Every structure is written in structure tokens, then in C-alpha cells.
Amino acid sequence: EASVFVQDAAAPRRPEAERQAALRDPGFGRVFTDHMATLRYTPDRGWHDGRIEAAAPLSLHPAAMALQYAQLVFEGMKAYGLPDGGAALFRPAENARRMQRSAARMGIEPVPEALFLEGVRSLVRADRDWIPRQEGASLYLRPFLMGTDPSFAVRPGRDYMFCVIASPAAPIFGSTTKPLTLWISDTLTRAAPGGTGAAKCAGSYGASLQAVAEAGREGCDQAIFLDAVERRWIEELGGMNIMFVFADGSLRTPPLGGTILPGVTRDSLLILARDMGLTVREEPYAIDQWQEDARSGRLTEAFACGTAAVVAPVGQVRGRRHEFAIGGGQAGQVTERLRTALIEIQRGRAPDPHGWVDRL
Ligand code: COI
After folding, report:
1. Which of 12, 59, 201, 250 has a C-alpha 20 to 30 A away from that of 53?
2. 64 alpha carbon to ligand 1 midpoint, in Å?
3. Which residues have a Cβ under 8 Å from the Cβ of 18 and sit 6 or more positions away?
4. Ordered DSSP codes for 103-130
């Protein structure tokens, strides 16, 4: 059956040497592939004009809703190389559905799940030779959806564009598992009850940048956000979730309550942890309690997790009122077991009991 996304066979491809160099040392979100998928929506025509075309600057009216009022939602997902030379996505329907929920929160016309998946798959097929094959690297996919009609009216837009771009990538903190140092952001928050924290909208990430910059000035790798009401409960980092491991063999992560991004990696790790026999708690965790538990040894490990970050151990935490190390600043065993279990499934090297691997 013909794809909704018609490929432009004349789209230029970059020279082989340039692609090989990018694949050897991709970094994160630095180099982009040859193509992009695009699809348009207008109220009279619905979704139409699907294309796989040359990845190139977009032409947007300067008053486009996405530019004026940040009417834009996005996803992060990856295509992984498999041992037999094939490639697979990981739980892509979760991303499709989350984008629909994010779209609803931002007054955006949702992309039907089948079209989302077809756009992503068509792009990965067109850019198959941009999937890095070395350990740790994959093809990061960035589907996004935005309001394109020009308007200063503060009401939902009318016309939309769905676009998927791709970028060969190593994990965001690099392929080593050197523990992170986190900075507690106690003055800036990223999400409030009733706000957009659970939506993967551009604004949630824009709102985290000042804290991330502050963390960098403090010599830390990432910021950790507390809840906006009591400034006490740990929520997430600037673009990834957080989990805690205790000496009694239990694992804890903040519950999804509207202010936390429902990560696909988060959900997958909770399932894998239960499979391993760990007691899993989705319960609030207070910043002071974390410090106390880390110092007493009741808490033994903590790690950041997300599609871009994969699983990254936390070794140090600092803030204006806190300073403590976790597990002597070393990466922990449970973190490492979970990280390996996830990666082995994603790369097709371990059985896939939950049916997460979506071969292309
Ligand atoms: C991801 O983990 O895919 C994210 O979206 C985090 C960040 C790069 C925005």
C-alpha cells in the first residue's frame, strides 16, 4: 500500500564521508539526517500533503501560533540498530498517544496514532543508513506538532504542521556512566498544578532553561526541580525523570500527578524493576528526606532516566541548603542492572516479554 508520506526521490543526500564522520561521533542533537517527514492539517482538508523531503529550513509566517504563543508539542524517541542489521523503534505507540495528550493540553489538533507512526517509520526507512550501529548510539527522533496559522488571537490555532526530524545520537550525558552532580533549583519551578508540566510542550522545556543554566554555573550537570506549592517534593530534572533506590531493595519515583512528564523510559523501568522483584513505589519524596536517607545509608542509589539520558546515575546533590553524596559518588548496582536490562531489550539482544520492540 502506498504511504501517506510521499518520498521526494530528488532530495539531496549528504556525502558518504560526512555521514560516516557524523555517525562515528554523533554527540547529542548536533547533526541531522538528510530527510524530514511533514504533514499538514487544515480544517477543510484534514490531514494531508504527507511528504518525506529534504531536511531544510521551514517557511513559517512570523505570526504563526507556534512562534507567538508556543503552540507546539514534541516527542523524543529512538531507532535502535539490531544485531541482524535491522532496526527497531521502542514502544512508539506510547509516544503517539502522549503527543495526543500533550496536543489536547495545548489546544492543538491531535495527529491520529496511525499517521504519527507512519510518519516516524517512513522517515527512519528513508534515513536508515543514518542509524549509528556502535554501542550506546542510536537515531534520535524528534516528532513535533505546531500551530502554523498567523494570528495574534489568543485562542487555539486553525492550521497545523506535523514534522519529524532525526539526529544520530549518543546518550545526552555521553556513553560513560560517570555519576551526575545535580543542583537543587529552590527558587525556580518548572510546573504547577493545572499547568503544562505533564505535557511535552516546548514551553515546559523553555521554562527549565534558566535553572539548567544556573546548575551549570554551579558546576553541576543538571537541575532538579521541586514542586511549586510547597517547594519540598522532588519532581524531575530539566528534561528527564528521577528514581531512587533504597538499601531494603525498593525503588521509588515521584508519582505522575499533572506536574511530571510521564516518561516512556520511566514507565519501562518501573515495569523492569517489578520484573526483577524490586518493590516499586510511586510516592512523593521530600528533598530533606533524600538528604537524610543518603547520609544514613538508607538510600543507596539515585538515577536520572529518559529517552535522551537513558539511565544516568546521580553521585552528588547540591543546593543552597543541601549538600550530599549518594553511594559514595559511585554508580550503583541496581541502576546498572536496570540500565543494562533496558538497553538489551531495546537493541534486540534480550527477550522482549512485554512486546516493546517494534521492528521496522
Ligand atoms: C528525551 O528524553 O527524549 C527528551 O525529550 C529530553 C530532552 C532532550 C528534551
Report:
1. 201
2. 24
3. none
4. HHHTTPPPPPHHHHHHHHHHHHHHTGGG
Containing H/E element for 242? Answer: strand 241-246
Q: Which of 75, 204, 240 to mutate to test the pocket of ligand 1 (most atoms within 8 A of CB)?
A: 240
Residue-wise pLDDT for 260-278, tens only, equals 999 999 999 999 999 999 9
Distance from the alpha carbon of residue 4 to the mean position of ligand 1, in angstroms: 27
Atom 6 of ligand 1 has which residue's CA nearest to it?
239
Q: Are 40 and 48 in contact (CB under 8 A)?
A: yes
Taking the CA of residue 74 as reference, the ligand 1 atom at the shortest distance is 5
- Between the CA of 307 and the centroid of ligand 1 the distance, in Å, is 6
If phi over 0 gives left and psi between -120 and 50 gives alpha, with beta otherwise, what is residue 347? Answer: alpha
Residue type, 225: F
What is the length of the chain? 360
Q: Fill in the DSSP letter of residue 10.
A: T
Cell readout for 360 is: 521496522
Instruction: Measure Cα distances from 60 to 57, 150, 161 in Å.
Output: 9, 9, 10
pLDDT, one tens digit per residue, over 116-156 is: 999 999 999 999 999 999 999 999 999 999 999 999 999 99
Q: How many CA atoms lie within 13 A of 194 on its CB side?
A: 1
The DSSP letter of residue 169 is E
Q: How far apart are CA 110 and CA 100, in angstroms?
A: 5
**Distance between CA atoms of 73 and 198, rounded to whole angstroms?**
11
By C-alpha distance, which of 66, 70, 71, 65 is closest to 151? 65
